[in-house]
Each structure stands twice: as structure tokens, then as C-alpha cells.
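Standup notes, structure subgroup. Blocker cleared on the glycyl-adenosine-5'-phosphate input:
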Amino acid sequence: MEKRAGREPDRMQEIISLCKRRGYMFPSSEVYGGINAVFDYGPLGVEFKNNVKQAWWAAMTRRRDDVVGLDAGILMARRVWQASGHEEVFTDPLVDCTNCKERFRADQIEELTGAPDVCPKCGMKGTLTQPRQFNLMFKTYMGPVEEDAGLIYLRPETAQGIYVNFENVQTSMRRRLPFGIAQIGKAFRNEISPGNFTYRMREFEQMELQYFIDPAEEERWFTYWREQRWRWYQELGMKPEHMQWHEHTKEELAHYARAAVDIYFQFPFGWKEMEGIHDRTDWDLRRHSEFSGKDLSYYDDLEKRRFIPYIIETSAGADRGSLAFLCDAYDVEELEGGDTRVVLRLHKKLAPVKVAVMPLSKKEPLVALAHQVQDTVRDLGLTQYDETGGNIGKRYRRQDEIGTPYCVTIDFDSLEDRQVTIRERDSMEQRRVPIAELRATLAADLA
Ligand code: GAP
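Run returned:
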């Protein structure tokens, strides 16, 4: 069947509106007019993002012997951010427009306006101030008094919690190199130009792996992790034509990286970074050794050699990755007879609702049988029961729009033949199966 291409800016608006309408994401504090660049995940959004995080956790820890997990605090000693370099250089160049008073990132002006000295908001030329450096870390104070001694930061990346626990994990888990520590958690950045829905937020979640290696194996593991991370997105159904590599130039490299590549995704608003894979060398452990006075080197007892491990980092955004999966899955399909349907072709592992159960009529005894059928499949993941809203076609469309892979319909024949209809989201094909076999059939299909 032919598919409508969909104009790109419209497409983003359609996805944002679907997210709000169907309980995926809402603007934070909306009843008070909202707060910029923070979003709340609704009932379906939280399930969906949890599925993304669980898929990452399974691939990065459970299915491997060489990676363990960690959940470090968001608040850390201020010295951590001095050692990591963030206090000094985690900055963006900020310019103000003296006419409209709006603020922008200096390095984005030309991209937005095509000229280096034109205000992206009011369009005036020559009204932008000289750039000044603005630190992106949120400050807060520990203890009852707001004084410099109590100044701490909300972490801008989860990575540092891993570095300062390197020795704890290595010794408690009796690890030899190479091994990795994985973590999922919140990070905060006071972005100057947030936007594009959940693409750039001020509060977001990261899924990071820090892989500790012998410096002699730097290239091998950098290549290995690039391949692993690319494959992860594809195994979860992301279309290869929507992904590409971006190698950092010297100017783009973060202060801690010797080399870095990003996996870009083709969002409706353009090709943008989705994940970064960084060769951080021994920068982090060396700096934490220097600043803390604690020796964080590693002794290789086989080779009788002591060195500071190098680190290969894979740093993905849970929100940004989720948005990419949503954009990748969003489709408006033209059906025979001129009708269209919106369908989220999410991978079954990521879909928030796995099975929707629908009696053809609201009357007993169909309803009782439908509830019984739902109970047999509850352990397969989140299920929904829907007896509302007229014809079955409309109910199928509602499930298509939220990405539910399977609908199960109970009709009057079901009372006699003890069979139900499974309707598949992508092909819309229907097949009849005995109720006694339904759970096993769907478990196999969802596996
Ligand atoms: N530890 C390395 C690090 O934090 P990064 O390139 O600054 O590297 C890694 O961030 C990933 O975190 C990005 O690729 C993106 O997915 C996510 N991310 C960063 N800033 C974000 C923001 N403001 N909103 C949403 N996600 C963000």
C-alpha cells in the first residue's frame, strides 16, 4: 500500500500532538503555563521509556560477563566537577540581542539565520553582543545556609559517578581489565537553547557505559563499541537509512576526549546526534587521582605492570533515543478506499502496550469472557481492555496509534468455539486461535 511521505515540520507537530493526546509525554507544570525544556512522561510514555532503558540494560549488562551495573548519587562532591574539568570548561558561548533581549548560543546563530550577526528572533542585524562563556551546570546548596562552602552541582553527566567508584567496583567485584560499568540516570544541563520537544532538555536521562581498558588496546575497543552501539539500534528496528556516523573534528571534541564519533539520527528537524562514543583516554582516572590524592591506577598481576586504565565511553540519551524510536516508527498509511491510519510501528519490545483485548459487544457474557482472556495474557506485558467507542475498526486504529502489536477480539462465536481473533498491527492480518493456545501464541510472537 502506498504511504504518504508527510512534510517534515508537520510530521514533528503530528508526533508531538500524538504524544500529548495519547499519554506519552506532557509539558511539565502545564497548569502553571509550563516550564521550559522539561517534560513529564505519561502512562504510556513511562512504559515506553522503561522498555528502551530495559533493552539497553539487558544488552549492556545482563547479556555480558564483562559489564556490571551501578546507580550513583546525582549529588556529588564539588571537587568531582573541578577534577573532571566541568567547573572550568563545561560552557557554551552565550550572546544577547540588545534589541529583543533574547539569548542564544553563539555557535548556532549562523545555522539559524545564515549570517553570524543577525538575531534569530527579531531578525535585526548587528544587535548581538560579544559571546561570553556560560557554565551549563545547575547550582544548588547542601545544608541550610546558601554559602559558597555548601555549593554543589546537579550532575551534567552520569559518567563521573562511575569514575569515582572505579576502585570500589573493581575490588568488590574482583574484576580484571577489560571490564565496564553501566549506569542509567538523570542528568541536568542549563541549556541556553533547548528545544525540539524532548531532543534537548534541561533535565534528561542518560544511559552510559564506561569501559576500562589497557591503553595498548585503545583502537580495538573503540571500534568494537562503535559497532555494538550501532547494532543495538538496528536490533530494535531502527531503519538504517535514518542513521549515520558523525566523526568529531578537533574543534568539536569535548575537553576529555581524544576521539569521538556520534550516531546521528534523521529527526524530522534534521540530522542530529543521538549517541556519542568517546575515547576518553586516562583523562578521568588521572584527574581524579590527582585531585583526590587516591591512586586510581590498576595493577596487572599477569604482566606485572601498573597503569591508569583508558576509558571508552558509550553515552546515549534515554529521552533522545526514545524520541528517535518514536520518529522512526511514526507512519501515516494510506489504505484502500482513500482512508488513512496513523500507526506507530514500534519494535514489539519497545511498545508500551503489548496486547489489547476487545469484546465485540459491551454485553455479557462477552465481557466476562474478554476479562478472562485478558487475565491469561497479563504476564506478557502491559495489556489494555477496550469495550468502548463504537466499531471495532475505530478501536484497532486507537491501538495502531499507540503502537500496540496485537489486538485480541472476542466475538459471539468465541462463546461457542472457544476461539478468538488476533489482529496484527503492521499487516492488519487476522487469524483465529483457540483461547487455550492464545497465551503461548502471543508469547512466541512477542519474544
Ligand atoms: N558523558 C558524556 C556525555 O555526557 P554528551 O555528548 O554531552 O556526552 C551524551 O551527551 C548524550 O546525552 C547525547 O548524545 C544525548 O543523547 C544525551 N543528551 C545530552 N544533552 C542532552 C539534553 N540537553 N537533552 C536530552 N539529551 C541530552
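Discussed briefly. Residues 157, 159, 189, 191, 200-201, 204, 206, 208, 273-276, 313, 315-317, 319-320 surround glycyl-adenosine-5'-phosphate (CB under 6 Å).
Next: hand off to the docking folks.
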